[in-house]
């Protein structure tokens, strides 16, 4: 699977700690709300603002992240490793709730804001991979992580109806021997 190394300061400075498995509450490891940079080897990780994988999220794919950004700096309370197979991703988007209306199969990063499907999606089915769904075309705003074999029949459940503008599959890591 790989690992994530977290650092208390930007540019990999200060104390560090390595994680190989999910941690629902960073208070248990004495690392709550103090992470400013990370290094990921292998599969992607998701950092959450609150314990138990809740609140705003930030995805870290394999590589060095010398500053995690102002939005989440010193605000991470849980970490989760992505375990799904990320090769050959596929998601089907539906215009209406309950998988009704026009559908579209997506296999790569797609900016819906540039076409007819901007802000018109109301449900999805993930066939393969893990997808980052974003409210704005630049990846900002509300973000949602759609996992493999997830069927979400109504975006109203996550207050995301007709707001999807950009989505992309998470990339598999190479440092894990995948």
From TrEMBL:
Recorded GO molecular functions are:
structural constituent of eye lens
Please provide the record's keywords in A-Z order.
Repeat
* The keyword Ribosomal protein belongs to this UniProt entry's keyword annotation: no
Which stretch is the leader sequence? none
The regions listed as transmembrane in this protein's record are none
InterPro entries found in the cross-reference section? Beta/Gamma-Crystallin (IPR050252), Beta/gamma_crystallin (IPR001064), G_crystallin-like (IPR011024)
Per its UniProt record, what Pfam families does this chain match? Answer: Crystall
* BP-aspect Gene Ontology terms: lens development in camera-type eye; visual perception
Superkingdom in the source lineage: Eukaryota
Which part of the chain is the Beta/gamma crystallin 'Greek key' domain?
2-42, 43-83, 89-128
Q: Family assignment?
A: Belongs to the beta/gamma-crystallin family.
UniProt-recorded name of the protein: Beta/gamma crystallin 'Greek key' domain-containing protein
Please give the organism. Catharus ustulatus (Russet-backed thrush)
């Amino acid at each position: 699977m790989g690992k994530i190394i977290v650092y208390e300061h930007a540019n990999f400075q200060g104390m560090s700690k390595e994680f190989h498995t999910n941690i629902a509450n960073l208070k248990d490891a004495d690392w709550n709300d103090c992470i400013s940079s990370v290094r990921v080897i292998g599969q992607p990780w998701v950092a959450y603002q609150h314990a138990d994988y809740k609140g705003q999220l930030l995805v870290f794919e394999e590589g060095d992240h010398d500053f995690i950004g102002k939005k989440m700096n010193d605000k991470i309370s849980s970490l989760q490793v992505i375990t799904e197979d990320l090769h050959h991703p596929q998601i089907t988007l539906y215009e209406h709730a309950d998988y009704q209306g026009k559908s579209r199969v997506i296999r790569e990063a797609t900016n819906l804001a540039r076409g007819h499907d901007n802000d018109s999606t109301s449900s999805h089915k993930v066939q393969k991979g893990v997808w980052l769904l974003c409210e704005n075309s630049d990846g900002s705003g509300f973000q949602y992580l759609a996992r493999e074999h997830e069927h979400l029949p109504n975006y109203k459940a996550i207050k995301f109806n007709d707001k999807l503008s950009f989505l992309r599959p998470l990339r598999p890591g190479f440092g894990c021997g995948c």
